Automatic annotation (TrEMBL):
UniProt: Mg(2+) binding residues: D103
Family matches, as SUPFAM superfamilies: Phosphofructokinase
Protein name: ATP-dependent 6-phosphofructokinase
Upper lineage: Bacteria, Bacillati, Bacillota, Clostridia, Lachnospirales
Function per UniProt: Catalyzes the phosphorylation of D-fructose 6-phosphate to fructose 1,6-bisphosphate by ATP, the first committing step of glycolysis.
Record organism: Kineothrix alysoides
Length: 320
């Protein structure tokens, strides 16, 4: 490998900059040049390619977002788009590519690998929904940001003796909701993987808690279930208790990454640069059972993971 390209793709996540920094510096240490591709696969197709040196990544480890920019690219899903992307890589001398993003981004990496460009994926998403890894870059910052915001909603909810439904991100996965639900001591936690759509159970829970003297009732609702505003209206009508919905939204994707996100991103970025330099391709970096490892992309995409039963059981038991 002579030149490694790097891009960030899909939703941004805090810690992506730390991963970019690690890829750049470890590649240079390995004697390889690095080029940054702006705005994900879309930027590749538009040839938005810049040289990256050691100093290009100074002063970014603490910044949220991604200095390269990111995008979701429909054109790259077509054969023509992928062929064009591979040709542009070759034209710029890029023979290895690191892609930081989620599952969708790995499919793009796999397509480029089939067209002769060595590719390695790094898991970057706040959703924690990449199956081959117990950890994804951005999750820790996002849950801490959401947890702090939920504490604040709880203060006002308690003062007004209201019920609050707080919707957190996660696309179809409930990891952010589960972690915040437990960490914020929520009375109800609604996860797409487990929710039975039994609103009457929630209503009964609210009424019983009020009888027991609880002044607030916090419901953490996952984005994958959604409809928090209409749910709040129905709950208020059924319980007679003022109910408000708060959708936390994009603030969960921003902010300076936590120590954990910076650390894991630094190791994963370095690991990706090293295995690419060793000649590996079509792999994705993961963290499983306390170890950093790499997996074939096809195998990684076929793996399954879900909300661990015991964690869910605990979340239910503690919210009673
Ligand atoms: O994947 C991260 C994420 O923030 C999800 O939690 C959310 O569903 C999605 O991205 C939103 O994507 P967009 O930025 O395209 O609106």
């Amino acid at each position: 490998i002579k030149t490694i390209g790097i891009l960030t793709s899909g939703g941004d996540a805090p810690g992506m900059n730390a991963a970019i920094r690690a890829v750049v510096r470890k590649s240079i240490a390995n004697g390889v040049k690095v080029k940054g591709i702006k705005k994900g696969y879309q930027g590749l197709l538009n040839e938005e390619i810049i040289d990256l040196e050691r100093n290009s990544v100074s002063d970014i480890i603490q910044r949220g977002g991604t200095i390269l920019g990111t995008a979701r690219c429909v054109e790259f899903k077509t054969q023509e788009g992928q062929e064009k992307g591979a040709q542009i890589c070759r034209k710029h001398g890029i023979d290895g590519l690191v892609v930081i993003g989620g599952d969708g981004s790995y499919r793009g990496a796999q397509d480029l690998a089939r067209k002769g460009i060595n590719t390695i994926g790094i898991p970057g998403t706040i959703d924690l929904d990449i199956t081959c890894t117990d950890y994804t870059i951005g999750f820790d910052t996002a849950v801490n940001t959401a947890m702090q915001a939920i504490d604040k909603v709880r203060d006002t909810s308690s003062s007004h003796e209201r019920c609050s439904i707080i919707e957190v991100m996660g696309r179809n996965a409930g990891y952010i909701a589960l972690w915040c639900g437990v960490a914020n001591g929520a009375e109800d936690i609604l996860l797409p993987e487990k929710y039975d759509y039994n609103e009457q159970r929630i209503i009964n829970n609210i009424i019983n808690n009020r009888k027991r003297g609880k002044t607030h009732h916090i419901i953490i609702n996952a984005e994958g279930i959604g409809h928090s505003t209409s749910m709040a209206r129905r709950i208020e009508a059924a319980t007679g208790i003022e109910t408000r919905a708060t959708i936390l939204g994009y603030m969960q994707r921003g902010g300076s990454p936590t120590c954990k996100d910076r650390f894991y991103a630094s190791i994963m970025g370095s690991y990706a640069a090293d295995i690419l330099c060793e000649g590996k391709s079509n792999r994705v970096v993961g963290y499983q059972k306390g170890e950093f490892r790499d997996f074939d992309i096809e195998e990684a995409l076929a793996m399954q993971k879900g909300i661990p039963d015991y964690q869910y059981e605990v979340s239910r038991a503690l919210s009673m």
